[in-house]
Amino acid sequence: MKSEPMNRLAFLSGILIMITLTAFGLKLFQSPIPQNLTTWVAWAILNALLLWASRLAGNRQSWMLSAGATLGVIFVTLVLLSKGQWQWGLVETLCTIGAVVGTAIWIWLGPKRGVIAIVVAMNVAGLPNMYDTYLAPNPESWWLWAGLTLACLLAALGAEKWTVQDRLFPVVNFVFNLAMLILVFR
């Protein structure tokens, strides 16, 4: 059984990621921060699938990061949809293929392998945002990536075990969000 401080870290990670993403969604209402809608739609779907797959794979305690991310990403996606921002190209096509493949692997091979496939697909889905950030860094969004990086770190530290279903998502997304944080300042 996980210690009480570790439970708190896992819980805090979910709250932090939800607050950070909700604040970012509210910021999107006020200012034109360029974002890729395809990325956020894919993240919304994949976060919900990851939450479900993680629970089915036996993650009973450190699922808060996925839950907070799912709610926050859905909010950001709804904000972007309301603003009418949309573009489609090769990167978006690759992102969509990754999401479909990840979902298919989860359905065919079960929840543990599905967690791996969905985490990979989530990071593939993030490539359009990473590419856009590389082309046009936006230092104004540093706090988003810093908050997400910290939330992932807390979730990794607060996870019960070193298993795929407990730590893959927070560890891999810690690296992704840290890369985004570095890119916004390049």
Can you describe what's shown?
The protein is globular. It is built from eight helices and no strands. The N and C termini lie far apart (43 Å). Helices cover 80% and strands 0% of the residues. Helix 1 runs parallel beside helix 3, helix 1 packs antiparallel against helix 7 and helix 4 packs antiparallel against helix 5. The chain has one domain. The mean pLDDT is 83. The chain is an all-alpha fold and 186 residues long.
Itemize the secondary structure elements and their pairings:
Layout: H1 4-30, H2 37-56, H3 64-83, H4 90-109, H5 111-125, H6 127-135, H7 142-158, H8 164-184
Helix pairs in contact: 1-3, 1-7, 2-3, 2-4, 2-5, 4-5, 5-8, 7-8
Number-wise, the strands total 0
User: What helical percentage do the residues reach?
Assistant: over 70%
Stretches where pLDDT is under 50 for at least 5 consecutive residues are none
| The number of domains | 1
Strand content: under 5%
Largest sheet: none
Determine the mean pLDDT.
83
Straight-line distance between termini: 43 Å
Could you say which overall geometry the principal axes of the C-alpha atoms support?
A: globular
Structural class: mainly alpha
> Secondary-structure element sequence?
HHHHHHHH
With helices defined by DSSP (H or I, 4 residues minimum), what is the helix count? Answer: 8
Radius of gyration using CA atoms only: 16 Å
